[in-house]
Amino acid sequence: MTNAKEQLRDMVMAAERTVAFTGAGISTECGIPDFRSPGGIWSKYRPIDFQTFMASAEARREALTRYIKVRESVGSPRPGRGHRALARLAGEGRLTHVITQNIDGLHQASGLEAGQVIELHGNGTYAHCLACGRRHELDWVAAELEARPGAPHCLDCGGIVKTATISFGQAMPVEEMRRAEAATLACDLFLAIGSSLVVYPAAGFPLMASRNGAKLVIVNREPTDMDDAADLVVHDDIGDVLEVFLP
To answer: For the chain, how are helix, strand and coil distributed in percent, rounded to 5?
Structure first.
């Protein structure tokens, strides 16, 4: 792995604009399991799709209750080596953006500025009103579920409150997708880190970068269907690989 780490470091040092694309694998060392793996959280607390969520207060209550249980099981994770390495590269001006499939907020917690993080699947650290957009903290959601039947309503407009994540069946966020495409097309090095690269449309960005002339690096424990398209593939622990960028 040493040669691969050195090659990765050399590629990053030589690039003018690097973009990182991150999936669940960068957060596993933080105690956040890969939700899709057998025996993962989704096998116990199956997510409810968007149409079902919107259909009834009972479904909304069940969805929020399941999410609070997931939150309790995960605890309060802290950024891992991979998050800190990317934040360091951003601080040095080598990394322009992190496009992430993750909803854990750990890239922001690692020191990245909010404008540098593009969350394709939303953020699971808070809830918001689908009507007016007001933010509602998850502690408040949990208290509301405990205090009364039904599903919580927005404190401002009475609208539907949902976690600020993109659920199955919910439209991808237009502005985030636009920003991700712009960042991808502007980079000359694209790092796909800890993603199985099977969840579309998000997984289309690595190939978009490669077809636009950027170098493509894939760092993941397991092989992906895009490995053959990459200029460098590293199958190893994410933190072990990215710590080459830490002091």
So the answer is: 45, 20, 40
Residues 201-223 pLDDT 10s: 999 999 999 999 999 999 999 99
CA dihedral angle for residue 241, residue 91, residue 203, residue 205, rounded to 10 degrees: -120
pTM over 0.85: yes
184 and 197: one domain?
yes
What is the distance between the alpha carbons of residues 203 and 26, in angstroms, rounded to a whole number?
16
Contact call for residues 12 and 66 (beta carbons, < 8 A): no
**Is 104 within 8 Å of 77 (Cβ atoms)?**
yes
Catalytic entry in 121, 128, 136, 235: 121
**28-72: per-residue pLDDT in tens?**
999 887 655 555 555 566 789 999 999 999 999 999 999 998 888
Same domain, 54 and 152: yes
Q: Give catalytic status of residue 107 as yes or no.
A: no
CATH number at residue 240: 3.40.50.1220
Question: Running DSSP on this structure, what letter comes out for residue 171?
Answer: P
